[in-house]
Amino acid sequence: MNKMKLTLLGLFSMIYGVQAQTIEFEGKEFELSNVKASVEKLNGEEVLKVERDLEALSFDEGQLEATVDEPTYVKLIELDMENGSVEVKLLSKIQNPSPFQAAQGFIGLAFRISEDNSRFESIYLRPRVGRSENQLARNHTVQYFAYPDYKFQKLRSPAFQGRYETYADVGLEEWITFRIEFRDQKAYLYLNDQESAAFVVADLLGDSTSGSIGLWVDIGTIGYFKDLIINP
After folding, report:
1. Is the CB of residue 147 less than 8 Å from the CB of residue 71?
2. Full-prediction pTM beyond 0.90?
């Protein structure tokens, strides 16, 4: 059942021409940012389904740098977190039909999201290439970016020497335990309860020092989330 509701803030915003919608899941309330979201059953479990809303934020395959790695998430309300850890179980599928044939099941977490969504950091997965026969494609399975100035296309340039993406053994349509630990200028990604980090960001590039967290997806992806744990 869809448990979406409009908050008083949302009703106030609608009066002034901006529709702010929220959704409740696992006892937490989230604000929708350029996504559609619903609480649904998947294999008998209640999960949060999130997809990018192309009416709210358009996509142009010819301008990837300008139209991907955007604030496309459900954001936890009333959280201002500087350092800590966030863990969630996530699963992604490719939309059929997909608005982007090169969609990779983009899914992950955003953190230190500013109140107006103008700044945040993110680590996400491209599960479709996690077990590709092409090693170069595999090397792009995990991605860090800092919105708005450091998106994947800029960070993939030779100047950054591949420091902001890496390989991970993950795939589409499987549950992945995804945990980010971040403190000051460093972040660590742990996958599937492994003891060692799968990915290390030694120098975060964003200028937001604290903020909320978001369950993030991008173009062509159906994302499912459950079991969110936050430890400030």
Report:
1. yes
2. yes
91: phi > 0 → left, psi -120 to 50 → alpha, else beta; which? beta
The tokens of 90 are what? 């996530």
Beta-carbon contacts of 76 under 8 Å, excluding residues fewer than 6 positions away, are: 28, 29, 30, 212, 213, 214, 230
Measured CA to CA in angstroms, residue 107 lies from 30, 56, 94, 161, 213 at distances of 17, 19, 11, 23, 14
Round to whole Å and give the CA distance between 124 and 21: 24
Q: What is the mean pLDDT of each run of 10 residues along the chain (232 residues)?
A: 42 48 98 98 97 98 96 97 98 97 98 98 98 97 98 97 97 98 98 97 96 98 98 92
Beta strands across the sheet bearing 221-231: 35-42, 45-52, 221-231, 84-94, 176-183, 186-191, 199-201
Residue 211 contacts residue 113 (beta carbons within 8 Å): yes
Both structure tokens of 226: 């459950």
* Virtual torsion, Cα 5, 9, 12, 16, nearest 10 deg: -100
Q: Which of 137, 26, 10 is nearest to 89 (CA)?
A: 26
